[in-house]
Design brief:
alpha/beta, 277 residues, seven-stranded mixed sheet, single chain, Metallo-beta-lactamase, Chain A, 7 helices, 22% helix
């Protein structure tokens, strides 16, 4: 069996931006905040720790013993880290996690995660997590070898900084680009980073009208801009991501319909759905 025949899958555990939005009208696309699981052969790669990491942790505990995984942070805004204290797999002693994130000044990723798990924000400290942790700095322009996969990082245009990840394996590639704001010109840096990707996951928080009517400089983009990037980069499939929390399933389906008129291989990302590049 060749490398391309072995598992390389993407599953969304959280697709929503800013705040969790669990209600009867968000079941189709999901209400949890950002968390992705990518499987490369037997390797588990987790991206961001929004509220979606809680059900992921529960699933991993049922599936594997011990659990070993790598966790990658795009940045540290609340919606990308607030699920981490509830990651059940982190409280079991035999499990092991390697955590990657970009430093902020003198604070590394461990310091930042510890900071949210401290009074007055949270009563349970990071040290209460009994799993074995390794913390590693990673910034834009990095190249990592994670088992059989190659990973590359790049900067995104977001307040306080953020970075995208490109995961390559067996001639296939997935690019995770959330959170980012488009400018007046096409983001050529992201176009290069996503060039030829099989899947591009792109921040499409706002509609073009919402963006024009007061959301500029808030750090997010639109489905129209995502299509521009996807076309320029020669991407095979575009997955719209970081859904605005007030947007229900009907509104997201309408955006999906509009987007597909411009780029047929475009979908709004769905919590629980498994994608194969």
């Amino acid at each position: 069996m060749g490398a391309s025949d072995k598992p390389f899958t993407l599953r969304f555990w959280g697709t929503r931006g800013s705040l969790p939005a669990p209600r009867s009208t968000t079941i189709r696309y999901g209400g949890n905040t950002p968390c992705l699981e990518i499987r490369v052969e037997d390797r588990i790669l987790i991206f961001d720790a929004g509220s979606g990491i809680r059900p992921l942790g529960d699933r991993l505990l049922k599936e594997k013993d011990p659990v070993q995984a790598s966790i990658f942070f795009t940045h540290y805004h609340w919606d990308h880290i607030h699920g981490f204290p509830f990651f059940s797999a982190a409280f079991k002693q035999d499990n092991h996690f390697v955590v990657y994130g970009e430093p902020r000044g003198s604070r590394n990723v461990k310091d930042i995660l510890s900071g949210q798990m401290a009074m007055p924000y949270f009563p349970v400290p990071l040290d209460a997590m009994r799993a074995r942790f390794s913390f590693r700095d990673v910034g834009p322009g990095s190249r990592l070898q994670i088992g059989p996969a190659v990973m590359r990082t790049e900067s995104l245009n977001h307040p306080g900084r953020a970075q995208s990840y490109r995961i390559e394996y067996g001639g296939k590639s997935i690019v995770y680009a959330s959170d980012t704001e488009h400018g007046f010109k096409l983001d050529e840096r992201l176009v290069r980073h996503a060039a030829g990707a099989d899947i591009l996951i792109y921040d499409a928080t706002y509609t073009p009208k919402e963006y024009r009517d007061g959301k500029q400089t808030w750090g997010h983009s639109t489905w129209e801009e995502g299509i521009k990037v996807a076309k320029a980069a020669g991407v095979r499939k575009l997955l719209l991501f970081h859904h605005e929390p007030s947007r229900d399933d009907r509104a997201l389906a309408a955006i999906e319909t509009l987007a597909r008129k411009e780029f047929r291989a475009c979908s709004a990302s769905r919590e629980g759905k498994i994608y194969v590049p």
